[in-house]
């Protein structure tokens, strides 16, 4: 990559970061390209040249956000924490990080818009699920996850929690965070409370 390409990529990354900060603080609808350009220190024309439209920029921001989260999950999985500490951190930190995002931005991330749906589905199928399978298998081998429950059943159980990501829930931030914390507790500990399979 030559100097011109490096500068171009740096500008694109500045635009992505500026857009993410503004979208996550104020919501997508309330943020203009002019505001993003000002925060990124570029012209509006530069944003349109690099991304084409605000919708395309949003899709790019969501892709970058998901890839960054995936890298955090990989680093967590490879850390020296115990398996129970890793899974608690994964579930409860994820809940807290979602609670800090503007509800409008969260709604955009679970939008029915085909481009965003493709991004989310591709991320889940090709990146997140393979990582989860590896993590589940490791938990089983270490005796932290019940070996009598198939990985397939666990993945179905995990996918059932997608149903809570509705626009109604996402639009109420206080309720959103409280319910996500309750669901994370239910997911991790079950109806009967904490129990370790050793």
Automatic annotation (TrEMBL):
Provide the residue ranges listed under DNA-binding region in this record: 32-51
Checking Pfam families in the record gives: TetR_N
What are the UniProt keywords, alphabetically? Answer: DNA-binding
The Gene Ontology terms for molecular function here are: DNA binding
- What InterPro entries does this protein map onto? Homeodomain-like_sf, HTH-type_Tx_Regulator, HTH_TetR
- Where is the HTH tetR-type domain positioned along the sequence? 9-69
The protein's matches in PANTHER family, at most eight in alphabetical order, are given as:
ACREF/ENVCD OPERON REPRESSOR-RELATED, TRANSCRIPTIONAL REGULATOR, TETR FAMILY
This chain's protein is named Transcriptional regulator
Query: Which source organism does the UniProt entry give?
Result: Desulfocucumis palustris
